[in-house]
Structures are given as structure tokens and as C-alpha cells.
Task: structure prediction
Amino acid sequence: MSHSAEAKAQYNLNKLHKRLRRGVGQAIADFGMIEEGDKVMVCLSGGKDSYTLLDILLNLQQSAPINFSLVAVNLDQKQPGFPAEVLPGYLSQLGVDFQIVTEDTYAIVKEKIPEGKTTCSLCSRLRRGILYRTAKELGATKIALGHHRDDMIETMFLNMFYGGKLKSMPPKLQSDNGEHIVIRPLAYCREKDIEKYSDAKQFPIIPCNLCGSQDGLQRQVVKEMLQDWDKRFPGRIETMFQAMQNIVPSHMIDKNLFDFKAVSHHSAVVEGDTAFDKVAVPAVPVGLLAEDEEDSATSAVMVQKLELV
Ligand code: SF4
Result:
């Protein structure tokens, strides 16, 4: 690589790193993900998302105005061909606290699920239980997962198409038993940025199909639909993601979210009535505008937010 090509690659990597760092900083601030004294258990699968999450959190930790500690945890599920030496090697070299938990969930899943059936739901349930137990043993106050913006959008469509619910993945949630707080600090980060970052950093990726099973085809179908939209309608994904943050309960049809029976001549006007108006569609998708501004005005605001974390 020529000197100028190298300089350009470094410049692009720095830009990418800043964008991811800002996204994570803003998500942490917006959702109150990490607080003073937290011990954050970062779940590391060996995929691009969790490597990026750990990398960015380690970086933020150095400059954040609050103190928090990190512990990386990988669950070795004893899948055939799992390269057990890769993560300990990488994490030792990084100097981060870590724990590898070994549990043969692969054997359990193989025993319980008939051949040819998808094993992911039992496997995930077992994994979740083990990770919760590990968090307790380690005294972790938060559990960080590597899901990103595109996972959230995909999940929303999956729930709409197949579950009849308008529901996505929360950026922060309480576990069923109330004992754990799970956070998704990559909530504002785009998958394509994570992918580029992971390639540039040459993280030692562990393939995710070692178990030989496949997550449902539906997710793949939704992913392809979104990728197609992204190509044909630039800005649409960004706009949809903004829409997920701008819900108007009075203009949906969920009786539990909005008390329609209470609407009377005397109630306050919530969003106004556009029933007789044409719906105004902006010439440029809102998401595209925000994306263009990202490196200029918006970034200054985001940096301020990051500094407030
Ligand atoms: S793909 Fe394999 S390891 Fe991943 S959740 Fe499904 S069964 Fe488990």
C-alpha cells in the first residue's frame, strides 16, 4: 500500500472510530446505560458486533467522566470446531479482565431437539441462563450485548410480519427475574460501520455457524428486504429508525397506549387532526438529512452529550 493510500485508510478508520464512539456515547447517555461504579459484563461471542462493542467501551472508559469497570465473558458452548484459544489469546493481549465459561449446551440441544429442527430457541435460552448466572457470580451490575441499530429495525419488522406486534429490541431492559439490567450500547450504530470497523481492526472473528444450525429464514428475508430498500431509497433506514424514536400513541390504534374513550370536547389536543389534510411527505427523507449533518452540526451536540455521560 502506498503512503498516501495508507494515510487515507487511517483517516477513514479514525472517522469510523469517532462515529461509533459518538453513537455509543450518545446511547449510553440517552438511556442511562452506565452509571458511576458499574461493573459491565460484555458478552463476547467472537463476532464483529461484540468485538466492536468491547473495543469502543474500552476506549470510552479511558475518557469517561465516570468510573466503571469491564469484564469480557465468552461462553464456549462446545460446538464442534470452536477455536477455544482465539478469545483468551486476544483478551490477554488486550489486558482486559475476562472469563471464559465452558458449558456443553451443544450436547443438550442435540439431545433434546429432533434432527432437522431449528435449535436456536433452546440454545439461546440456555445461553441466557448461563450468562445471567455468570453475571451474578462476577458481581456485574450491567450486562452489555452487541446488538445494533439494524438488529433493532429487523426485529421490529419480524415482530410486525410474524408476531402481530409493533415491538423491537429495547436498548435497556430488566431481565425476567428482575435481577439484571441488560444494555445495548451499539443501539445507535449502523451494521455497515461495525462491519467496516471490524475488518479494518482485523478482529479474530469466530464463525457463527459452527453448530450447523441456522437462525430462522425469516430474519434473513427481512435483512435482505432492508438491504434492498437501503440501496433503492437512501435514507429510508435512518428515517425508520427515527420513527422508532418518535411514536405518537394517539395516532396508533392501541387502546392500552392511549385512552381513546377519554377523548372529548374538553380533552387537550395531543397531535392535532390531519384527517382532512394531505399527508406532507418531505422531499428528502428525514433520515438522510440527519445523516448528512452527522459530521457537522450534529456531531458537536453528540460530543457534548458524550462528555456528559
Ligand atoms: S446458530 Fe447455533 S449457536 Fe447460534 S443460537 Fe442457533 S443453535 Fe445456538
